[in-house]
Amino acid sequence: MSNSMKRLLLILSLLLPVLWGCGTTVTTDPEPTPEPEPEPEPTPVVEGKPRYVWIDAAANFRFFADDKAYISKEIGQIADCGFTDIVVDVRPTEGTVLWNSSVAPHARRLAAWVGSSYRFVERISDWDYLQAFIDAGHAAGLRVHAAINTFVAGCGGYYGLEDEGPIFTGDIPAEWAAVDNTAEGLRSNYYPGKQGTVFLNPASKEVQAYMLSLLRELAAYNVDGIILDRCRYDDTGLQADFSDASKAGFTEYLGREPSHWPVFETGASSLPAPVADEQKAWLSFRAKTIHDFVEQAAAAVHGVNADVKFGVYVGAWYSTYYTSGVNWASPRYQTSRVYPRWADANYSKYGFADHCDQMLLGCYASVSGIYGSGEWTMEGFCKRAQDIILGDAPFAGGPDVGNPEGWEKGGKSAYIPKTVDACINNSDGYFVFDLCHIRMFDYWKPFKNAFNDYINSLTTN
């Protein structure tokens, strides 16, 4: 083969692949890019049922009165424990207030146990006490509720202390005080030498208007809820209130003059046997008085801010709570069928649970009364409340961990988880009185462990 032929064959061998591909460039596919690993799903935050701690004004005043930093510090501890809600007492039994009110006098001193003595704790600061708790609570992720002692106006001196409160200073008229049916006859709850809380007359239209004005002020704050405490008659058995206003109201309720005034014998503090129909009607009238005020109070709060949760604190001992003039049941609960001795057919009409967005129940049993099925056990209180409230309002039951039998001296850390178990699993939340006892007896860790166990039970199940 000639050299020219060899060159031709070499050129053809180089051109044929290009001609065969019709001028396209043949490339090798790159290695496929691996799919990125999916991001792990974030662990859902499980809040569970609300867990409230009450912050009594007087009992905690020496820590909080002038110290915003201490408020923030302790609110941080509360949140770290696993509480979700704080209830800040801003109208103690003295009847003065701890917010910037244009209606009521501001609290400058509160009487409280300090160490081993009862004395006044003074406040010198002018910053807004309630707002400080709102700011600290919200910063810590807690809901903040303002609580007021409702039908009270002052505190007669204990242990040699001076009288304190607006009824003693003339900021509230003396005529607004309740009138008691005492062994000495009808007497104002406000009198010289009075020791203890002075109660106002819930049937007084002036008293009701005054309290509603305070609630409207509170509802203008950025609170999450408002709770009424002592929205009731005095704890004098059945001796309150026999004022002219109550007599007029009862006469209108009956449609005639009462056949006997006062309706109970002089000085009576308990029911006679048997209970007369007119006496049962009197109990219904008192329940109606409180019911009607609660209805007005809810409307007043929601009229300012519809998002504020309105509610009440009540004692869970329903079977005897009629002595306070309060029916905290659903109006669908047939009280007279369960308690025919003291409730007439009308009593059920004045259950006010359906006017509440939330309720706190004091299940204040002893250390030995945590579990059980009846009243005076925490579990029993909560179970009974389910049957009484009938779902009309969510309620949180819980203990006083500083006052009932067995709790007084502390040292009951092992029982804290039991109270959580008994109450949170038989109500719509958990409520404890009071922050001062958690601090005093160092119950921080027991509460944190108990709430962790509760949350873990939700995620496990």
TL;DR?
The protein has 461 residues and is an alpha/beta fold. It contains 13 helices and 14 strands.
Defining traits:
461 residues, alpha/beta, eight-stranded parallel β-sheet, two-stranded antiparallel ribbon, 13 helices, 14 strands, 16% strand, globular
Describe the fold and architecture.
- The protein is α/β, with parallel strands linked by helices and 461 residues long.
- It is built from 13 helices and 14 strands.
- The longest helix is centred in the middle third of the chain and has 28 residues.
- The termini are far apart.
Number of helices: 13
Distance between the termini: 91 Å
Class from helix and strand fractions: alpha/beta
Q: Biggest sheet, strands in spatial order?
A: 13-12-11-10-5-2-1-14
Q: What characterizes the major β-sheet? A: 8 strands, parallel
List unreliable stretches of 5+ residues: 1-29
Strand percentage lies at 15-25%
